[in-house]
Amino acid sequence: MKTKTLFFILCSLFISAVGALSACSGDRQFITYRGMSMGMSANGMADTLQQQGLALDTLHSTPTSIVLADTLKRNFVVTIYHQNDTITDILEQYSATYNDSTSNLWQAMHDELQKEFGWPNMGKHGDLHKEATFEDDRGTIILTLLNTYSPTMSVRYSTTTTQD
C-alpha cells in the first residue's frame, strides 16, 4: 500500500513537470521541471520545491548542488546542479522495494515524455537496465531504470543539448 501511494504521488509530481514551455531569458526556451522553467534560479527552484513538501538536505548539498528529499527514508531525492545559481541539471532519483514499482514508474514516465518529445534514443533496453534519451532545442531528459538488488530509477533534466 505504501509503495502504491508513493508511486501515485511520484507520477502526479511528474505529470505536473511535463507542463507547457516557459520562456525565461531572451529567445532561449528551457524544458520544464514540475511546471517550472529550468531557466529560473537554482535557489528559486529549491525554495519552490520546499513549498511543495520536499525537505532541504543540508548534509548532502554542496556549493554546486542543492539536495532535497521527500522524507527521511529518501525514497525520492532531487538534486539541483548549478553554476552561480544558474541551473545546469536536475536529477531525480527514485528507490523502491521491488522491481515492478520502478518498472511501472519508468514506463509511465517514458510514455508521457514520448508524447511531448517524440520517440527517444534508447541506449539500453533490457529487463534490468533501460535508458531513454529525449532531446530537443530546449534541453535533454535521460530516463534510466536499474532493477538489480536495489531497484532504482533516475531522471536527469539538463539544459544542454547536442545543438549547444
Characterization of this structure:
- The protein has 164 residues and is α+β, with helices and mostly antiparallel strands.
- Helix content is 27%, strand content 39%.
- It contains 3 helices and 12 strands.
- It has helices at 2-17, 42-51, 99-117; strands at 22-25, 28-30, 32-33, 36-37, 55-56, 65-69, 76-83, 86-95, 121-125, 129-136, 139-146, 152-158.
- An 8-stranded antiparallel beta sheet has the order 5-6-7-8-12-11-10-9, covered by helices on one side. Strands 1-2 form a two-stranded antiparallel sheet. Strands 3-4 form a two-stranded antiparallel sheet.
- Strand 1 and strand 2 (28-30) form a beta hairpin.
- Helix 1 runs parallel beside helix 3.
- The termini are far apart.
- Mean pLDDT is 82; it is low at 1-25.
Query: How large a portion of the residues is in β-strands, by DSSP E?
Result: 35-45%
Q: Radius of gyration, rounded?
A: 15 Å
How many β-strand stretches? 12
Please describe the biggest sheet, giving its number of strands, its sense, and whether it closes into a barrel. Answer: 8 strands, antiparallel
Low-pLDDT windows of residues: 1-25
Total count of helical runs of at least 4 residues: 3
What is the end-to-end distance?
Answer: 44 Å
What does the overall shape look like?
A: globular
- Which bin fits the share of residues in helices? 25-40%
Coarse structural class:
alpha+beta
Mean pLDDT: 82
Q: How are strands sequenced across the largest beta sheet? A: 5-6-7-8-12-11-10-9
Assembly level: single chain
The secondary-structure element order is HEEEEHEEEEHEEEE
